[in-house]
Amino acid sequence: MSPARHLRAWLARLFAAARRTGTLTRSRSPAYNGGMRVALLRRSAPEPTHVTVIHAGTCYPVAVRRRAAARRITLRVSSATGEIVLTLPEGTDLATAQRFADSHGAWIAARVAKLPQRVAFEPGAVVPLRGVPHRILHWSTASGATTVTTAPDGTPVIAVSCGRPHVGRRVRDFLEAEARSDLTAAVARHAGALGRTPRRLTVRDTRSRWGSCSAAGQLNFSWRLILAPPEVLDYLAAHEVAHLAEMNHSDRFWRVVAGLYPGYEAPEAWLKRHGTELHRYG
Ligand SMILES: [Zn+2]
Questions:
Q1: For residue 167, how many C-alpha atoms fall within 13 Å in the half-sphere facing its CB?
Q2: How many angstroms separate the alpha carbon of residue 254 from the centre of ligand 1?
Q3: Could you list the pLDDT tens digit for every one of the 282 residues in the chain?
Q4: pTM (2 decimals)?
């Protein structure tokens, strides 16, 4: 059996099992009587979160997302995460979706091949910190603080002291802490200038947005801003603080941003141009 046929047979067995599970639940419930329950139970049969597309001997996992608002099947490869995502309208059956994905195998392979190379946080890797390339140096296996220093050859380094398996985690924690520290200072400065007080500041690995401001005045930022040149992080802090005064992107909002950060257009353009590159790291 070819790998593709083998996979389809496996998927068919998976669905059969899901249907059987539904039947089993029904027969186990003596109180059950009525068509409505059947419909509900059938609908709750789990749908696989992924399908697989095989092209030129390589398997590509494709995430399946159902969207009530989707008008047609769409396929995309995220340049930020490398994830292949198939979006389906509510009524489209999975077999149709699988055929659609299969017919785009070459397209998927080409897009994946063009993705920017990921840089894992491991010894020797070069990672930007405040826009300056730093090499990760596994300084010692004894547990100690992560520090920024300069190697004898003049290269800036992030020196990590911990067991080898924890290097990646330590670098990530360090960068997140640096991001929180810079963002806290920048937010305090801009909020002071604007005469507003944010409620809370959180730093996360947000994928779709670099920052956000809730109606309650909570600010949220991506830790990856610490990788960008400092003016980019500073501008994002000003942008979100400006939302404390204007919860929109109106002309009035942009005037507030310009008041807090004159020349904000340059860092804004930098993010549009280079933002996705920041997702390569870690
Ligand atoms: Zn905004």
A1: 18
A2: 9
A3: 455 555 555 555 544 444 433 322 222 333 344 444 444 445 556 788 899 999 999 999 999 999 989 999 999 998 777 889 999 999 899 999 999 999 999 999 999 988 888 899 999 999 999 999 999 999 999 999 999 999 999 999 999 999 999 999 999 999 999 999 999 999 999 999 999 999 999 999 988 899 999 999 999 999 999 999 999 999 999 999 999 999 999 999 999 999 999 999 999 999 999 998 899 999
A4: 0.69
In the reported structure, the alpha carbon of residue 107 is separated from the centroid of ligand 1 by a whole-number distance in angstroms of 34
CA of 132 to the centre of ligand 1 (A): 26
- Give strand pairing partners of 220: 202, 212
| DSSP, residue by residue, 38-54 | HHHHHHTSPPPSEEEEE
Spacing, Cα 68 to ligand 1 middle (Å): 26
Question: For residue 93, how far is its CA from the centre of ligand 1 (angstroms)?
Answer: 37
In the chain, what are the domains?
A: 3-113 (no CATH), 126-280 (3.30.2010.10)
Q: Report how far ligand 1's centroid is from the alpha carbon of 282 (Å).
A: 26
Asked if 112 and 273 touch (Cβ cutoff 8 Å), the reply is no
Ligand 1 centroid to residue 39 C-alpha, Å: 43
For residue 183, how far is its CA from the centre of ligand 1 (angstroms)?
16
Ligand 1 centroid – CA 261 distance (Å):
14
With b for 16 or more beta-carbon neighbours within 10 A and e for fewer, the 260-272 pattern comes to bbeebeebbebbe
Q: Tell me how far apart the alpha carbons of residues 80 and 276 are, in angstroms, rounded to a whole number.
A: 5
